[in-house]
Amino acid sequence: MPIRRPISAFKKTLTNLAQTSHYQVIMDAPYPVRRYLLDRGIDPFFITENVGLLCSSASLPGSSYATSDIVGNFTGVVERMAHTRQFTQIDLEFYVDKDYKIVKFLEHWMEFISSGSQVNPGRDGYFFRMRYPKDYKTDRTRIIKFDRDYAAEIEYTFFGLFPLSINNISVSYDSSNILKASATFNFDRYVCGPVTSLDFVRGINFNNIIKNPSTPPVIYRTGQSLGNESGVRGVTYKPGNVNPTIVR
Q1: Per residue in 209-237, pLDDT tens?
Q2: Whose C-alpha in 80, 138, 148, 220 is 20 to 30 A from the C-alpha of 92?
Q3: Strands 63-74 and 55-57: what pairing?
């Protein structure tokens, strides 16, 4: 039997919903692709800073399980067991800058994937030979979803990501609009939650919650002694509930 509840009982829940327009895309490319793009006028700064900023539309990834039916464990019962996790592709849409760098970024990344023949592509008889996956897949692309108060966020890190296709870009003599380019990206897997080394030290990797968030963090700087340890190199960040990490 349903329970009668006043509006005030769930008003707080329904007025604190996430919105679609607050997100950040951090795009990256492996070193062989960066070097290939640099020869075509696409510098690394444009990749790491501007490509994500020009991403006008993105999608958070989804996944599913491939299953097998098992018969015989229980009489008259068919059990379904998961054996493989499958990841869907994601679509990203970008504003096109006046220098068309975003189009070159997508086109030449895909061009690099099939440019292993080392033959002039303008000649007759040109053929495609694929590069090794480690040369064109990147493991450092992220999508961070947050809201305007920056109070909470959810982060996705993609492993083995590369552009799978570029969609047609429509142009016409009708009234001018902002030109957009969209592409479909494939990836091997993703991780939900922060995965950097600093996130591990802070204890917030994989969406973990720090046990004592009120404990102030401690930052050990170069040359500061940690007990009997000395000669610390760089800066080590540690929350109050985590033992210090010493970097030599």
Answers
A1: 765 555 555 544 444 444 444 444 444 44
A2: 148
A3: unpaired
Q: Which residue is associated with the tokens 């030599």?
A: 248
Domain ranges of the chain: 18-193, 196-248
Residue with tokens 């994937």: 113
110-128 as b/e: b if 16+ CB within 10 A: bebbebeeeeeeeeeeeee
Token reading at 120: 């002039």
Report whether 187 contacts 156 (CB < 8 A).
no
| 209/225 Cα distance (integer angstroms) | 29
Number of helices and strands (H, E) in the chain?
Answer: 7, 12
Q: Put residue 241 in one of left, alpha, beta given phi > 0 → left and psi -120 to 50 → alpha.
A: alpha
Q: Using the 8-state DSSP alphabet, how is residue 32 labeled?
A: H
Encode pLDDT of 9-46 as tens digits: 888 888 888 999 999 999 999 999 999 999 999 999 99
CA separation for the pair 83, 65 (Å, rounded): 7
What residue has token string 């591990």?
Answer: 200
Selection from 39, 177, 49 nearest residue 104 by Cα: 39
Residues 6+ apart with CB under 8 A from 70: 78, 79, 80, 81
For domain 18-193, give its CATH number from 2.60.40, 2.30.110, 1.10.10, 3.90.1200: 2.30.110
- Inter-residue contact 183 to 106 (CB < 8 Å): yes
